[in-house]
Amino acid sequence: MSVEPCQNYVGRIALYHGPDTELELISATWQQPTGGEILVRITHCAICRSDVHTMCGRRQVSTPTVLGHEIIGKIVAFGDRAVLKDFSEQELSVGDRITWAIYAHCGECFFCRHGLPQKCEQLFKYGHEPVSPTGEGSSGGMADYIILKPGTPVLKLPDTIPAHSATPINCAVSTAVAMLRESGVNFDAETKLVVMGGGYAGLCAVALAKAQGCGRVVVFEPNCDLHERARSFGADVVWHPETFSKQYLEQDPSKLREHDVVLELAGSTQAAVMGLELLRNGGRLVLAGTVFPSPPLSLDPDQIVRRSLTIMGNHNYRPEDLECATRFMAGQGKNLPWDELIGAEFELAEAAKAVEYAKSHPGKRAILRLS
CB–CB of 18/63 below 8 Å? Predict the structure, then answer.
């Protein structure tokens, strides 16, 4: 094992104080990691749509904080009891480029033992935790360094995955993997899937489903400028929701109930309602896009019972989903047009500009390049 000499590491963080306030760029110091910690020099951080919801006031977080959870970086130093292998049992060394789950978990509580580590009783979420006014305790991606806590699933990144494609793996791509797994469907040539939302996670779901052999994928996306992009990721049909509703749902929706699975990644109650109308008897609706308070979903229990429907929520993912997402990006997914999903790159000093770009370009990721 290669270990850096004991020292402090000086860098910068972009401190978030609340909606409609400027990010504050300040200096910060990171200590040498101890125990099971790993110190990482952040190289790239993407601004996820959930970060945008936070900065627009639709999601509440304790402030001040350091946002950003779609992160990759290079190992700088290990604590004296750090695990020197990643989740897939690869050896870890200083200088390795890595991704990691957006959370640390204890591994021992009820939820960790029953397949829900992302709901650990001692959960720590990167890019979501409060920090001191001086930035002490920073755990977000809008910073030069980050300390990974024990219990964080870490994965070494193959050199073949470009940085911009690698950065959202631990959120958008892994969430899509988890949704397909949670649906419980074995995708084959007869499977009909609906994806509500043609953003980053939605297109990941399209590509993953097609890679698993899904016969037909329909995408609903209100931004018509993004329709061709959805097709380039494998969508067979792309609809504007209002156009589809006027042509079909307002006539006889029962004729459209032929789809096995609907994935809601639009962040819209309306999308969930439409999704229910599209499901066949025994179909499954998986909700993941509404990660902020939304209008209630009105349901007729009689319809749920008589049509034998399943409705489930999916929030974040298991460590094995991160591993599957990484394999996909290095293998079957490597030739897809991921660059089309990246809008612009910014320095950390331009974090405020990156945020404004992310707000005004919902179909694109803004990327912070830190080193």
Answer: yes
CATH number of this structure's domain 9-160+334-369:
3.90.180.10
Cα distance between residue 307 and residue 301, in whole Å: 10
Prediction pTM value: 0.94
Amino acid identity for residue 225 in this structure? D
Q: Rounded to an integer, what distance in angstroms lies between the CA atom of residue 227 and that of residue 223?
A: 7
Task: Find the length of the chain.
Answer: 371
- Compute the distance between CA of residue 90 and CA of residue 98 in angstroms, rounded to an integer: 11
Q: How far is CA 310 from CA 209, 273, 323, in A?
A: 19, 13, 27
Residue 32 exposure: Cα atoms within 13 Å on the Cβ side: 8
Measured CA to CA in angstroms, residue 262 lies from 243, 281, 305, 307, 352 at distances of 18, 13, 18, 15, 36
Compute the distance between CA of residue 271 and CA of residue 294 in angstroms, rounded to an integer. Answer: 12
Superfamily designation of domain 173-313: NAD(P)-binding Rossmann-like Domain (3.40.50.720)
More confident residue, 156 or 244: 156
Strand (E) positions, 126-203?
Answer: 145-148, 154-156, 192-196
pLDDT digits (tens, 9 = 90+) for 86-117: 999 999 999 999 999 999 999 999 999 999 99
281/84 Cα distance (integer angstroms): 49
Helices (H), the chain: 49-55, 110-113, 163-166, 172-183, 200-211, 227-232, 241-244, 269-278, 301-306, 319-330, 351-360
Domain with CATH 3.90.180.10 in the chain: 9-160+334-369
User: How far apart (Å, rounded) are the C-alpha atoms in residues 78 and 232?
Assistant: 42
Give the pairing type, strands 24-30 and 9-15: antiparallel
